[in-house]
Amino acid sequence: MKLATVLAAVALLSTAGLSSCSSAEPATTTTTPAISTTVPSTTVAPISSETLADPAPEPITFECGDLNLYQSGTALYSDGTTGYESTCDTYVPPAEKVLWYCDYPETAVYTDGTSSSSDPACINDEPINPNPGGGFPYIAEEDRNGDGVVNGYERCGIACGQEPTSGDIQTRNGCEDGYITGPLCENLDG
Question: How far is 70 from 63, CA to CA, in rounded Å?
């Protein structure tokens, strides 16, 4: 039986019971309006272990940081953090400095493009041959700019009884082809 029907029946009985009592005064009948209350029915689903468990978190991934912005080995993780990963470590130690030649008095120039004024190999009173085993030997008179190195354009060449310079060879070719004439061509009998 529904609750609303029960309440309506109780209200009717209480009214009928009051009117059946005799009294000197005439009976007055009052009716109480029935209150309709409906309780909705709900169905509760059983709780399963799948409902209570959190979904599996996504795996955290990473990518290596740009070497222009980050140190070698920096990993940028998908959760927004950074850290170290060996697969991102691309550091290569610099190559050992190798003396290329001595430039200007007491200045060493290395193969990696750096220079030093404190390399003992270039600190001496007489300039050294910048290319032992080849190249041009140092002759102070030929060092026209005083840098301690005799470059090809500073060499004397055939005029000094030495190997011809590139200028000597070009002049000889010009004389043979006829576009250079005069005393330059007479001195090239080296």
Answer: 12
Q: What is the pLDDT of residues 33-73, one digit of tens each?
A: 556 556 566 666 666 665 566 778 889 999 999 888 988 89
What is the token pair recorded at 103?
């430039």
Please compute, for residue 140, the number of CA atoms within 13 A of its CA located in the half-sphere on the CB side.
4
Please give the model's pTM, rounded to 2 decimal places: 0.28
Give residue 181's Cα distance to chain centre: 63
